[in-house]
Structure formats: C-alpha cells, structure tokens
Specification:
By secondary structure, the chain is of the alpha+beta class. It contains 16 helices and 12 strands.
C-alpha cells in the first residue's frame, strides 16, 4: 500500500479531517444537492466521497478541490454512453477494479476493505472505475477510426523524433515514462509537480498509478509503459540517466524541454537481438470470441456485428460489452499463426469478416485489418509510436467531445 493508499494511521487522520459535524448529519445535509446535471442531482455525500478517495490516492490539491466538476463530467459520460446504448458490464467493472487494486499489490476485496477503513465506500470506487471504462469505450467507438495513424504518419513521426534508417545496435531497454508538460511560461509549476510525483512514484506499482494520474504522454493509459527500444536511440540528455539505472530503479525528474520534465522507470535491460527478417508478410487482424459456439443466437449476434462494422476499429464500439480477453487486435507474421487462422485470413481482403472458425465453446468473428511486410521493430519502437499517436488523438477528441457535452447540458448549481 505504500505510496498508493494512505497507511492506516494516516487514514484515521484523514477520516477526522473529513468528518462532518453531527448537526449537519442530523439535518441530512450530506444528501443536499451540490449540482444538477440534466435534472439529476450530485449530492454533498458524493462530493465528499470523491474527495476522500482522491486524497487517499495522494492526488494533488487541485484534483481534490475539483471533485464536483469531475463528478459532473462523469454524469455527462454516462449520458453519452446511454445515448449510444453502451454501458460497462459487471465483468468489465470487476476486471477494472481488480487491475486498479493490483497496482497496490492488493486484491479488489482487500483494496475495498482498506478504502472502507478510511471512510470511502466500495460503491464510490466502483463508480470511479465504471466511469473510466465506459468513457474509454465511448471515445473509441466514436473516434478510433478517425484517430488511427497510417504507416506513413508513423514513419514521419519516427523521422521527426530522430530515428534514422541506421539504428544503434547496442543494448535495449524496456522503460516506463511519466512526462509532465506545461506551457513554457509555467516551467516552475511543471518542475514542482514533477518533484511531487517523484516522491510518490517510488516502485513499479506506484509509478504505474502516477503515470495514469499525472503524465501528459500518450502512454498514460498504459501506466507509462513503452516498448523495447535501443538505448542509443534515446535523446542524449536521457540516455546517460537511463544507462545508470538498474532494473526497478527510477530516474529523478529531468528537464526535457521548456515546461517539460520526465521520469523513467527501467523495467528490463537486454542485449540487442538479431534483426528481424525483412519482407515477411505480417497480418493485422481482429477476433471477437462469442460464447455459444455455432448456435442460432450466436450466429445472429455475429451477423449483427458484421452489418455494423466497416473497419477493425469499429469493433471497439460494437463489441464494447465483450470481455477484454475475447476481443483481440494484433499483428503477427503469417508464419506464426495457427494453420486454420492463417488459411482463413488468406481468403479475406482488408476489412472483410469470416465466421467459419470456433475456439472451444466460442464462435470466432475474424476480421482482416491489413496485410503488409513485417517491419523491423528491433530498434525502432514503431508500435509504441503508433499507440502514442493513436492515444494523443483520442485524448484530443475526448476533450473536445467533453466540451461539447458540457455546452449542450443543463448544469445548475443550487
């Protein structure tokens, strides 16, 4: 729990600090409305619960004080999801709570128990996780197809970031990053926040959590995790600091530009691998596994999916209720695929769907996204750059969409 939840002794102090006077409780003041969003109330109780929760996560003061506005955004996210016929399934929420708790090396049940000791209900935690899940699905369903970078855009980003055709051989590193970025005139504020984050992010679990909360990088949704890359490919001012780290160690904050500071966690180090073969066919494909085999109901669901998707990205919205392990999008050399999967994909053109295969008790909805030569990713982190470009665009679309939802909503403060 260190660096993630406040320790029990401090939790008691937090409860005392947040206690509500008995007269207020008696008058039912905790359930008075603090705001109305499209005629739905947000209560004082909800605001205090969110503030306690954020305080226990060591969130900065501005996030704690902004709890009401964050809850308003959550209401708008739920409204947008409802309008699209989407909701976070019980399985998704449970998986999200488990993943969140695992960052503190706890089970979901243990995590909820610790929260409740500090006066935060399990329902507050559940609502927090569910809001994030459904918003992710909404944003992907609306904007993933428009956000997906082309190969040309990835190559252009590689060139702009200084990756050349001849990459350093040397050792490779597996890093996680936290990038704190503010306007150049707010350099002092960025530096102070980076120093505060450095005090929180002292282990891999707490680094993951801090990246999701504070990082400005496109990798924040993955806890700051980067793909394998050549140590020699890093910018010079970063390379020396990373080279001095041992696996599990975290660099102190370092300035990487005006108003920009970075922290890096070295997860692993390895020798340079052999270069991947050029010209080998690679297939990017998506598969959705629908329980029920080739039953009439499952085939009908597969037909519904077929009529509603044009590209692989559309599957994120159409199959939003499918557990994460049953919706996969990946790129592999054709030679590495099982024979039946390779044969089925060979019959498809880009964005065509097959429902001929099954896996266990599940019908496979198989879609070919694209085919092309296998790129050498041994030193150039193409997939990490592709993911970063996608995430940056999705974040921009999400922010714009939220501004639109706020502009169209009726928000009242009593």
């Amino acid at each position: 729990m260190r660096n993630f939840l406040i320790l029990p002794a401090l939790a008691v102090a937090a409860i005392l600090a947040w206690s509500v006077p008995a007269p207020v409780l008696a008058q039912g003041g905790l359930f008075a409305a603090r705001a109305f969003v499209n005629d739905r109330a947000i209560t004082e109780y909800e605001v205090q619960q969110r503030q306690r929760f954020l305080t226990l996560l060591n969130a900065p003061p501005e996030m704690v004080s902004g709890a009401l506005e964050a809850l308003i955004d959550d209401r708008l996210r739920a409204d947008a999801a409802k309008a699209m016929g989407m909701e976070a399934s019980a399985e998704q929420v449970t998986a999200g709570m488990t993943e969140f708790a695992a960052r503190a090396n706890l089970t979901a049940e243990q995590f909820v128990a610790e929260l409740e000791k500090a006066g935060v209900s399990g329902e507050t935690f559940r609502d927090f996780v569910a809001a994030g899940i459904v918003w992710r699905d909404v944003v992907r369903a609306r904007f993933a197809a428009r956000s997906r970078p082309t190969d040309a855009e990835v190559e252009r980003a590689i060139a702009e970031e200084g990756f050349g055709g001849e990459m350093p051989a040397g050792p490779r590193v597996l890093l996680s990053e936290i990038i704190i970025r503010r306007a150049p005139e707010e350099d002092a504020r960025a530096r102070l926040l980076a120093e505060r984050v450095a005090k929180i992010a002292t282990s891999e679990a707490s680094f993951d959590t801090a990246a999701r909360q504070y990082s400005s990088a496109g990798t924040r949704a993955e806890g700051g995790k980067l793909d394998w890359m050549a140590l020699g490919s890093l910018p010079e001012q970063v390379r020396g600091r990373v080279a001095a780290l041992s696996p599990g160690e975290i660099s102190p904050p370092m300035q990487v530009g005006p108003g920009a500071y970075a922290l890096f966690l070295l997860r692993e180090r390895a020798k340079a691998p052999a270069t991947l073969p050029e010209g080998v066919e690679a297939l990017e494909y998506a598969q959705v596994l629908l329980p029920g085999g080739r039953s009439e109901a499952t085939l009908a669901e597969a037909a519904r999916i077929r009529t509603r998707v044009d590209t692989c990205d559309d599957l994120y919205g159409v199959a939003s209720g499918v557990p994460a392990d049953r919706l996969l999008v990946q790129t592999q050399p054709s030679s590495a695929l099982p024979a039946d999967l390779r044969a089925e994909l060979s019959r498809l053109d880009a964005n065509e769907i097959s429902t001929s295969l099954t896996r266990g008790d599940a019908l496979m909805v198989l879609m070919l996204c694209s085919r092309g030569p296998l790129l050498d990713t041994s030193t150039v982190p193409r997939e990490q750059i592709r993911a970063r470009l996608l995430n940056e665009r999705l974040v921009a679309f999400a922010e714009s969409f939220m501004a639109q939802l706020r502009a169209e909503a009726v928000i009242r403060y009593p």
